[in-house]
Amino acid sequence: LRQQGLNEIANSDDLKNVNDIRVKLLGKKGPITNVLRGMRDLSAEERPKVGKFANEVRDELQQALEDKKSSLEQALMNAKLQSESIDVTLPGTPVAQGQPHVIQQIIDQLVDLFIGMGYEVAVGDEVEQEEYNFEKLNLPKDHPARDMQDTFYITPSVLMRTQTSPMQARMMETHDFSKGPLKMISPGKVYRRDTDDATHSHQFHQVEGLVVGEHVTMADLKGTLEVVAQNLFGDQLKVRLRPSYFPFTEPSVEADVTCFNCLGKGCAICKGNGWIEVLGAGMVHPNVLKMSGVDPDVYGGFAFGLGPDRFAMIKYGVEDIRDFYQNDMRFLTQFDQKG
Ligand code: FA5
């Protein structure tokens, strides 16, 4: 029995088989247990001899089973380690990484530029009081110029801001002019009931700029806008200032950049005129200064509101503003800053 058991153990090659052998040889119904159970029928002389021998056989088989079990477990572990080993020299799987939206990239570039020129950045709320969006900007109720910015109203006195200009009034009200001039930009989203087309979206972005202090002139405005244009477009594209009208600036101008598509010849994108309008600007109207508690006899300033969506179109030759808002990854990943 002993030799047979040892042979079986030696020949078994998996853990389940080893367990079966253990049950068969050493279990309650196994031959060793039988022998031990039959001891009471033996004579007092035989009992210790048989008992001793049976115990020896049992211990020996038990040891052989243990040894076999641990050697099989070890082999299993080795095989597993072998199959799961990692080749650290293989190239890794690239991790998908997000990036700022192309319009945000333009805004970030502008913010960097203006911070470098000593401006502070003030972010306002997209839901604004009518008073700040219109009244404090010299646009009383029933003023015809309100039609220039068709508005989404939330209540009769609360609206989705149509421009970032309300931040002009808010910043002038709180600025301490005894400490120096106010120089700020305010980037953000604005909303208008415009009909969407290639160059208009009902939701778009603006970056407002405002400088108020002593001796601020129109030449400062022009110089600042030239720095912006050169920073974003280089000097290949031309910029022109055109007289315009805004209720909150006097005089007012609009700036156009050469159409990127036809380079001034006239095409469908620029509606035939060769230029794309990118910003409105002017010298802050004395009424606006007064309404925000600033003395127009002492202080003056310039303001501008530019459209980063249009800037992005011109910079990258995007023919339809609506492409920016459709979240098509094939379109958006073209502007990956990591290249
Ligand atoms: C304004 O909103 C004025 N608040 C700008 C301003 C600020 C003037 C400070 C004077 C002083 P306007 O409506 O022209 O002006 O818009 C400014 C810029 O926003 C435009 O030049 C254009 O680049 C962009 N813009 C206007 N409407 C849209 C639209 N529907 N879709 C995309 N961009 C637009």
- Major beta sheet, strand line-up: 1-5-6-10-9-8-7
Overall number of strands: 10
Q: Which small-molecule species are bound to the chains here?
A: adenosine-5'-[phenylalaninyl-phosphate]
Largest beta-sheet details: 7 strands, mixed
Strand content: 15-25%
CA distance, first residue to last residue: 76 Å
String of helices and strands: HHHHHEEHEEHEEHEEEHEHH
Mean pLDDT: 92
Poorly predicted runs are none
* Content-based structural category: alpha+beta
Question: How many distinct helices?
Answer: 11
Helicity range of the residues? 25-40%
Overall morphology: rod-shaped
Q: Radius of gyration, rounded? A: 42 Å
Please describe what this structure looks like.
This protein is an alpha+beta fold. The chain has 11 helices and 10 strands. The strands form 2 sheets. Strands 1-5-6-10-9-8-7 form a 7-stranded mixed beta sheet, sandwiched between helices. A 3-stranded antiparallel beta sheet has the order 2-4-3. β7 and β8 form a beta hairpin. The protein is rod-shaped and about 130 Å long.
